[in-house]
Amino acid sequence: MKLTLRVWRQKNADADGAMSTYEVDGISPDMSFLEMLDVLNEQLILSGEEPVAFDHDCREGICGACSLVINGDAHGPERTTTCQLHMRSFQDGDTIDIEPWRAAAFPVVKDLVVDRSAFDRIIQAGGYITAPTGSAPEAHATPVPKADADFAFEHAECIGCGACVAACPNGAAMLFTSAKVNHLNVLPQGAPERETRVLDMVAQMDAEGFGGCTLTGECATACPKGIPLMSITSMNKEWLRATRKVAKR
Known about the structure:
- This protein has helices at 33-46, 117-124, 146-156, 163-167, 174-185, 194-207, 218-222, 230-248, and strands spanning 3-9, 18-24, 69-70, 73-74, 95-99, 108-110, 113-114.
- It is an alpha+beta fold.
- The strands form two sheets. The chain has a five-stranded mixed sheet with strand order 2-1-5-3-4. It has a two-stranded antiparallel sheet with strand order 6-7.
- The longest helix has 19 residues, at 230-248.
- The radius of gyration is 20 Å and the shape is elongated.
- The model has no long low-confidence stretch (mean pLDDT 94).
């Protein structure tokens, strides 16, 4: 396959960025999208040019590091992570636009790399259980209804890639935050901090400068792990419940 790549190049956070055009040839349809970028970077290095900076880690669809907007879609045309997107999703001769996540809370570091530490700070605000639990308890020591366990597991699948933010026209982080809140709040281990968790995490989310959620649903459509839109509704109920409880104290 021969492709034309229009790639966002930006030297650093303070520099202006622009799209640069490159031609790559000999691309196998079985290559992953990141492998195709590796080929581009080898080509650039051999010609004495600066390689394109992009995030990646496991390349197994687990870590969520591979954050790219491809032809206007977060992670590209398939509902998967960029590292699991293969070049057979494109046609020979295609022109492909490759950009970083576009959100005020995700400032560009260099080229296609953005700073997603805002997500880390949201989790630090309450996305964990502070009570010491010691070693792993016996699996049946704390009975959990299957419906609650399934709900928790569904939301724990969130890999924090940020596709929901990139896809949202408002740059909202509600799907990510709701996934982190819901998967802990529904379990008995997370019950003691149920109210403070949702209040603290939502407050931190707002402080990071993410946009407001208008439930357009683009976030759920782009999510490679299929976190449902109703996750946001569940978190909103948790937040209202916590707000009312705190107001009564």
